[in-house]
Q: What sequence folds into this?
């Protein structure tokens, strides 16, 4: 009977096929809509932003030139010059800045409403994804701010009726709901977000488990809270498009307490001295690394052994760099871009505005003269 | 020989049908309200629920039969409905042969439309139709497919929360498809509080009957256990008339849980009012489920374990002896469900 396991039950159980492989958590993540639709290489992301902007630029320029043609007879040379100067499409870089500015606003409003961390995270994630698909020239960011928070609440099972939502945000029902479907569509109907907070909880339990007696529980609690904040900040960076949630979590941990995190990673993932690989092997693996992939080599049975310490560490260090690049957009910057956006959509206002400015300066000098 | 002809014929037929349909649709537009919505036609109303109407239809470009779930957004003043959002959210994540496929989504006349794969029947219809005969091997096949679908949800950290025969649909080729994710949600983090008002009453796990605000995907496994019993009995296993009676029916059949096998179960506020029933003996179970093998009974009892922590997980169910012993599960496409 020994060694005849598969034979004794033949007919009822088939032998595992040669390429049998159990689905890993990595495989599952790769099937998530977050990975399928919203993970990019830096080049892909850049291209996406260029394309979205270029598309909008074409239609804005068409509209502007149509406007100039239509009003050709009524426009003075001065006015045409103003139009060509002021009513111009915003650039891709400006779009990114404006979106970042408003994303911060979304975070602020959502936090002010005392929404749970995950709802805040989903709100700003939705908002940023919306503007990968749409240009700020198509839909003004301020009209979509409340809609994203409202949809995020519903998507995260934190229902608030539209009326009380409108009351809390001093907004109106119609404005909140107007673009809701457009938002859902732009999100590619992909609503489930894997945020780095869950991994944070997991790593914390594991750190305490692995480094029992070496860590102070109270101190850990403090780190936990700080990391949560760091993660929310990280969601405002492009790191979320390049790295998986647990990678972002580890990067946040590394920023918070480098010694502790390194100790944990070493204990967990570094091979014991006697099994340590030769340098060439490590180099070989380094060459194979991909931005999103922890490891491309075939998985072994033990999930832990499939993670290469050096690859992991270099990934997390790179992720950390991305997180520190927290985009900060000044109010003045945002105002200038918003004005540009306004003028390219309302060319008449650009003319009116420049006229008013001229008159003001004329009357200013008039006043001065009087004083003299 | 035939195979060589088919593609040509199919194409021609479908092109013809498309042309014909659009003619018909235009003509019918005013008569019976049939509307062409872009790529999809709605041909026949097949069901109406509280928040949606379901139509059968055709995808024009391919001739594929589909079902369209039209969500009545107009009746919800809060924009997109929560059930619809849940359905979209979770179906978008799950691509599995045993979970219904979300083909497309579109908006028309202020209504959200979910285009789903067309599934002609469900397990409830089959169980109720006394003209349909099915064998233990067929049941095993259905359980295997159901659990594969459920396992895939669970390993993606999604709980279905409304498993019942009516939500286990069957494709033309006999595959079970877990459907209706209107109550689904992500497996909660430890401190999250949940509503216990989920799952259709007869399929509700004891922790839900007790009103627990913290529970796990184990509630889905309980439902599968009840469905398994129902497939063997061909009548609902624990049909309580109301929520209170559901507890009585459940515990009379399976024994009232005690602190010994489910620590602190007696601290649920509803516990004091309960009649204490002993668990059924093996012989009683054998008499109730005459055709069931010992492995089948084990399989059922482990899904119907009172303590959710001890209840089998979907993976444990899939690895049970029941699936390894004879008879092997029927080939899905060979199960005859036409009476």
A:
């Amino acid at each position: 009977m020994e060694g005849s396991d598969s034979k004794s039950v033949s007919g009822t159980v088939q032998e595992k096929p040669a390429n049998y492989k159990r689905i890993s958590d990595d495989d599952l993540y790769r099937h998530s809509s977050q990975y399928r639709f919203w993970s990019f290489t830096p080049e892909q992301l850049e291209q996406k932003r260029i394309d979205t902007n270029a598309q909008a630029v074409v239609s804005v320029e068409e509209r502007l030139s149509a406007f100039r043609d239509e009003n050709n007879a009524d426009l003075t040379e001065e006015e045409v010059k103003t139009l060509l100067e002021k009513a111009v499409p915003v650039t891709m870089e400006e779009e990114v800045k404006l979106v970042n500015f408003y994303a911060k606003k979304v975070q602020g409003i959502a936090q002010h409403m005392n929404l749970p961390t995950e709802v805040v995270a989903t709100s700003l994630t939705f908002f940023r994804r919306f503007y990968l698909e749409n240009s700020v020239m198509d839909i003004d960011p301020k009209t979509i701010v409340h809609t994203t928070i409202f949809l995020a609440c519903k998507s995260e099972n934190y229902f608030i009726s539209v009326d009380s939502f409108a009351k809390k945000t001093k907004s109106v029902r119609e404005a909140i709901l107007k673009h809701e479907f457009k938002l859902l569509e732009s999100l590619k109907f992909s609503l489930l977000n894997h945020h780095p907070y869950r991994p944070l909880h997991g790593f914390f339990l594991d750190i305490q488990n692995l480094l029992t007696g070496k860590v102070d529980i109270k101190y850990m609690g403090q780190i936990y809270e700080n990391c949560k904040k760091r993660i929310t900040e990280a969601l405002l960076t492009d790191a979320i498009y390049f790295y998986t949630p647990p990678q972002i979590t580890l990067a946040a941990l590394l920023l918070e307490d480098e010694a502790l995190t390194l100790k944990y990673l070493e204990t967990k993932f570094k091979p014991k001295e006697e099994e340590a690989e030769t340098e060439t092997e490590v180099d070989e693996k380094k060459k194979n690394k991909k931005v999103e992939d922890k490891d491309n080599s075939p998985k072994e049975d033990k999930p832990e052994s499939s993670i290469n310490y050096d690859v992991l560490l270099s990934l997390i260090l790179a992720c950390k760099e991305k997180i520190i690049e927290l985009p900060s957009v000044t109010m003045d910057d945002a105002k200038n871009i918003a004005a540009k956006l306004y003028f390219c959509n309302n060319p008449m206002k650009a003319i009116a505005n420049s006229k008013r400015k001229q008159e003001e300066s004329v009357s200013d000098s008039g006043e001065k003269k009087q004083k003299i | 020989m035939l195979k060589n002809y088919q593609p040509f014929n199919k194409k021609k037929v479908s092109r013809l049908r498309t042309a014909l349909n659009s003619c018909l649709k235009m003509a019918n537009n005013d008569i019976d309200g049939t509307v062409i919505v872009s790529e999809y036609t709605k041909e026949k109303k097949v069901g109406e629920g509280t928040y949606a109407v379901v139509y059968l239809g055709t995808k024009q470009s391919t001739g594929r039969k589909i079902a369209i779930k039209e969500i009545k957004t107009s009746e919800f003043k809060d924009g997109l409905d929560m059930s619809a959002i849940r359905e979209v959210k979770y179906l978008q994540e799950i691509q599995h042969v045993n979970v219904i496929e979300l083909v497309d989504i579109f908006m028309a006349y202020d209504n959200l439309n979910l285009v789903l794969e067309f599934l002609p029947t469900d397990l409830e219809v089959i169980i109720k139709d006394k003209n349909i005969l099915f064998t233990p091997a067929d049941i095993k096949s259905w359980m295997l497919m159901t659990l594969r679908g459920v396992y895939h949800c669970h390993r993606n950290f999604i709980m279905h929360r409304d498993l019942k025969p009516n939500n286990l649909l069957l494709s033309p080729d006999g595959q079970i498809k877990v459907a209706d994710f209107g109550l689904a949600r992500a497996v909660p983090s430890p401190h999250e509080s949940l509503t216990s008002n989920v799952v259709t009453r007869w399929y509700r796990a004891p922790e839900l009957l007790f009103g627990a605000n913290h529970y796990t995907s184990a509630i889905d496994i309980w439902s599968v256990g009840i469905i398994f019993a129902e497939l063997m009995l061909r009548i609902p296993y624990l049909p309580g008339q109301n929520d209170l009676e559901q507890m009585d029916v459940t515990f009379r059949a399976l024994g009232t849980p005690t602190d010994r096998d489910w620590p602190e179960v007696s601290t649920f506020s509803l516990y004091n009012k309960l009649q204490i029933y002993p668990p059924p003996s093996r012989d009683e179970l054998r008499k109730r489920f005459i055709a069931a093998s010992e492995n089948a009974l084990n399989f059922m009892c482990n899904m119907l374990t009172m303590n959710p922590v001890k209840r089998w997980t979907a993976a444990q169910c899939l690895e049970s002896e029941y699936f390894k012993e004879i008879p092997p599960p029927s080939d899905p496409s060979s199960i005859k469900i036409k009476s």
Summary: The domain at 121-334 of chain B is CATH 1.10.510.10 (Transferase(Phosphotransferase); domain 1). Residues 1-36 of chain B have pLDDT under 50 and may be disordered.
